[in-house]
Amino acid sequence: MQHFFFTIFLLLSSSCFIYQTTSKSTIEPCSNSDTCSSLVGYTLYTDLKVSEVASLFQTDPISLLTTNAIDISYPDVENHILPAKLFLKVPVTCSCVDGIFKSAFVHYKTRPSDTLSLIADTVYGGLVSADQIKEGNPSAVGSDPSVLNVGTNLWIPLPCTCFNGTDNNLPAIYMSYVVRPVDTLAGIAARYSTTLTDLMNVNALGSPAIKEDDILAIPLSACASSFPRFASDYALSVANGSYAITASHCVQCSCGPGSRNLYCMPASLAVSCSSMQCKSSNLMLGNVTVQQTGGGCNVTSCNYGGFVNGTIITTLSSSLQPRCPGPQQFPPLVVPPTSVGPDVMFAPAPSPSESGGAPMDGPHSSVVPASGSVIAFPPSGGPSGSASSACLLNPLASFPIAILLYLCVKYVISLPL
Ligand SMILES: *[C@@H]1O[C@H](CO)[C@@H](O)[C@H](O)[C@H]1NC(C)=O
Ligand SMILES: *[C@@H]1O[C@H](CO)[C@@H](O)[C@H](O)[C@H]1NC(C)=O
Ligand SMILES: *[C@@H]1O[C@H](CO)[C@@H](O)[C@H](O)[C@H]1NC(C)=O
Ligand SMILES: *[C@@H]1O[C@H](CO)[C@@H](O)[C@H](O)[C@H]1NC(C)=O
Ligand SMILES: *[C@@H]1O[C@H](CO)[C@@H](O)[C@H](O)[C@H]1NC(C)=O
């Protein structure tokens, strides 16, 4: 329930009373230094290389892959071509911009025949509106938004939420999700292991009715770290089913299915890394030994304690537990996708074998597309942005309706026709 009080609805563009379509998104107020890791749900509009998707969101290709539990040990994986319509979770830093959480660091460099609506609706899949890009880039866009100079650097203000990294007092990471025509709130709740009530609370929905292009904040259960504040990966949190890569690509952490404990081990790409052995023991990061004793099970583990001044902090811990724990379960890794299934959603592979074995054992058999493939550009004949966009409302919940209507009318009148 606490989210209700933090959540206000923003009427996006196209919301003038003339056009009855209103897209909603959940916005969360913040103060200047607030920041968190968040995700956006993104559907590829065309075939794109891993590195191209990453650069659209200014994220690291390896983090993009591990967030989606895609095997990074695959050869030349950053140049792998991902198929159009693939759904990915993209990690973005959620920062406080003018009192509201947004992606502060996502930028886009315009290409020939780009329009604001093409960038908003197609390239960024409806995560942002043309008006929001225009409002966020007053000097770059100018008075005629249909004329964009090629190579203009545009800030892309994507919606994101932090809600203190918790949902119902349990660790959570929030994903901004654009509703598709086939979606129901119950279906989304089931897909992301949450409940209808929780989604309604988080998004302050009065009813479970949702519309195409609404943007929901979906809480994904997560495992939180307790690294010291001076660690560069302080507050690392990993969503259920994902991996996070940290410590200069040396350490990977995950939240095992059915567990709330963050589990970290050397990353498969670890090359020149500082020592990952626990002091005064022969255990490496991620190693666990169990010893049945009269009083219970003596569990000793070598754990990751954060990345401090370029050093991987390890801590050895021992505890006496009533029962010996089973093998650690890891999120199943998938090979880089080359096609999209019939339901057009990227679904992770079925659960790992009961061995709970190493997470890097994914199959390596699927075919890598030839590296000379054509890089697709956005279709040039996309919808052109113009008359249907109407008033841009500032996200002030208490804005009197009369002023909104006035601004609407004023904006419509001022539209170049
Ligand atoms: C945020 O969560 C932390 C614990 O994770 C808690 O100590 C703190 O009070 C919370 N802050 C707010 C504003 O809820
Ligand atoms: C994590 O995901 C798995 C499968 O996706 C699901 O069965 C499980 O309930 C989830 N765990 C939590 C704590 O949400
Ligand atoms: C300890 O961890 C390393 C690295 O993950 C692994 O190669 C090794 O097999 C583990 N040893 C034991 C005893 O679990
Ligand atoms: C548990 O095992 C560790 C090393 O294996 C040992 O140092 C520690 O004393 C043991 N603790 C208990 C309570 O047996
Ligand atoms: C990191 O290194 C700097 C300079 O080398 C030092 O001043 C600082 O105390 C170190 N921080 C930690 C947490 O060790």
Topology:
Layout: H1 2-6, E1 8-11, E2 24-27, E3 35-43, E4 48-49, H2 50-56, H3 61-67, E5 81-82, E6 87-97, E7 100-103, E8 107-109, H4 116-123, H5 130-136, H6 138-141, E9 153-155, E10 166-167, E11 170-178, H7 185-191, H8 196-202, E12 215-224, E13 237-239, E14 243-246, E15 251-255, E16 262-266, E17 288-293, E18 296-308, E19 311-321, H9 401-414
Parallel strand pairs: 3-11
Antiparallel strand pairs: 1-2, 3-6, 4-5, 6-7, 8-9, 10-11, 11-12, 12-13, 14-15, 15-16, 17-18, 18-19
Helix pairs in contact: 4-5, 7-8
Bound molecules: 2-acetamido-2-deoxy-beta-D-glucopyranose (5 copies).
Question: If you had to describe this structure to a student in words, what would you say it looks like?
Answer:
- Residues 106-156, 175-218 form the LysM domain.
- Keywords: Signal.
- Residues 1-23 form the signal peptide.
- This is LysM domain-containing GPI-anchored protein 1.
- One of its GO terms (molecular function) is peptidoglycan binding.
- The protein is an alpha+beta fold and 417 residues long.
- It has a domain at 23-106 and 158-222.
- The chain has nine helices and 19 strands.
- It has helices at 2-6, 50-56, 61-67, 116-123, 130-136, 138-141, 185-191, 196-202, 401-414; strands at residues 8-11, 24-27, 35-43, 48-49, 81-82, 87-97, 100-103, 107-109, 153-155, 166-167, 170-178, 215-224, 237-239, 243-246, 251-255, 262-266, 288-293, 296-308, 311-321.
- Strands 3, 6, 7, 10, 11, 12 and 13 form a seven-stranded mixed β-sheet that branches.
- Strand 6 and strand 7 (100-103) form a beta hairpin.
- Helix 4 crosses helix 5 (130-136) and helix 7 (185-191) packs across helix 8 (196-202).
- The longest helix is centred in the last third of the chain and has 14 residues, at 401-414.
- It starts with a helix and ends with a helix.
- Mean pLDDT is 80; it is low at 1-21 and 344-417.
- One 2-acetamido-2-deoxy-beta-D-glucopyranose is lined by residues 265-266, 284, 286-287.
